[in-house]
Amino acid sequence: MEKASSILSSIFGGVSTNPAATITSIFVYPIKSCRGISVSQACVTSTGFRWDRQWVVVNSKGRAYTQRVEPKLALVEVELPKNAFTEGWEPTSSSYLVLKAPGMENLKVPLNNSCEIIDGISVWEWSGSALDEGTEASEWFSNYLGKPSRLVRFNTASETRAVDPDYARGYKTMFSDLFPFLLLSQGSLDALNELLKEPIPVNRFRPNILVDGCDPFSEDLWTVTKINNLTFHGVKLCSRCKVPTINQENGIAGTEPTKTLMKFRSDKVLRPTSKQQGKVYFGMNLVCKESLSTWGKGKVIKVGDPVYVLKKVSSPGDAAA
């Protein structure tokens, strides 16, 4: 028993071998700002989870739509083949991304389609080329949103979108806002819901990884964690935009939870000695160390995996934000 404990101690650098939490849900969002898919496991790639934010809907000028300006995207359901989340799976001629939305016929987008490359696509500070998913997809989103739209896929063959090097040098992502992964704890959500008149579900915050078993807002402090032999770095507290105020079941925006979060999760409260920008924080942005290395087997995390904390800071004020 002592030998086993010694081995574990060496693996985890002398840190307690007791897990700090357990993964209870994993979410992948194939199309930016559309509904996510709850999966039992997900493969880690060089840009985040496989399939995550690989597509985006853009306007006539190639600028990305998000729920901030098109809340109806919250109602677009996305399906991928069940096997798409298993390690080593590759699409065939009969593999599709399937989209559903109120008042619309289902749309099937081939996963191995040969797409035209179009230039001038932009997401926040990034611009480049992307793969156009064609006329049928364009008409579907144009009809649904009531304005010219196109569905495009990240052009991995020629494009790279770097993560802000001030927080994580050398990492990259596709069409996510800023970072490849977002982690949130059930304890944090429960603590917030105790303060709200009407509790909200986790989908308001669109995390990739939901964990349970830790104190509320413990994730604020985690700078290095280990999950199934993969090392994740907590690189920045997640500052929240308008999206958590949008009901993901009907696309209608309100004032909560931002109104309540401002009372106890603002930079003024959590980071009183730092420059105040009126931000509220909920969740931790992550990068995965192994995503920097050559693609290989075993880069998978699963629901039920324990989360080990290797390094942490003493307060949210000490965390990057």
Key structural traits:
321 residues; mainly beta; seven-stranded mixed barrel; disordered N terminus
> The biggest beta sheet, please?
7 strands, mixed, barrel
Round the Cα radius of gyration to an integer and report it.
20 Å
Structural class: mainly beta
How many distinct domains? 1
Give the rounded overall mean pLDDT: 94
Silhouette:
globular
**Which strand-content bin applies to the residues?**
25-35%
What is the number of beta strands? 20
* Helix count from the secondary structure assignment: 5
Separation of the first and last Cα atoms: 41 Å
Spans of at least 5 consecutive residues whose pLDDT stays below 50 are 1-14
- Trace the largest sheet across and list its strands: 1-15-14-18-17-16-20
Encode the helix/strand succession as letters. Answer: HEEEEEEEEEEHEEEEHEEEHHEEE
Q: What is the share of helical residues?
A: 10-25%
Structure at a glance:
The protein is mainly β and 321 residues long. Helix content is 12%, strand content 31%.
